[in-house]
């Protein structure tokens, strides 16, 4: 069965992943900026315990 022969396809897959991870991905990541951190102070909400009618 020719589809089980990994000879040409393994090399093509490895070269394409190396090209993506070494060349294309760093160029794309330079355009993506993370959200700047905010100085907002988060307060925890006051919670009251649930009152069960049978206790």
What report would you give on this structure?
By secondary structure, the protein is mainly alpha-helical. The chain is 42% helix and 0% strand. The protein is built from 1 helix and no strands. The longest helix has 23 residues, at 7-29. The model has no long low-confidence stretch (mean pLDDT 80).
Structural class: mainly alpha
Q: Count every beta strand, where a strand is a DSSP E run of 2 or more residues.
A: 0
Mean pLDDT: 80
Helix percentage range? 40-55%
Number of helices: 1
Order of H and E elements: H
Enumerate the spans where pLDDT stays under 50 for 5 or more consecutive residues: none
Taken from the alpha-carbon principal axes, the silhouette is elongated
Portion of residues in beta strands equals under 5%
Main β-sheet description: none
Rg:
27 Å
Q: What separation lies between the terminal Cα atoms?
A: 72 Å
GO biological process, one term: proton motive force-driven ATP synthesis
InterPro entries: ATP8_metazoa, ATPase_protein_8
Keywords: ATP synthesis, CF(0), Hydrogen ion transport, Ion transport, Membrane, Mitochondrion, Transmembrane, Transmembrane helix, Transport
GO molecular function: proton transmembrane transporter activity
Q: Can you summarize this structure?
A:
The chain has 55 residues and is mostly helical.
């Amino acid at each position: 069965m020719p589809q089980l022969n990994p000879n040409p396809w393994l090399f093509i897959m490895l070269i394409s992943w190396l090209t993506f991870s070494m060349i294309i991905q760093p160029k794309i990541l330079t355009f993506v900026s993370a959200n700047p951190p905010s100085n907002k102070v988060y307060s925890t909400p006051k919670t009251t315990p649930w009152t069960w009618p049978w206790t």
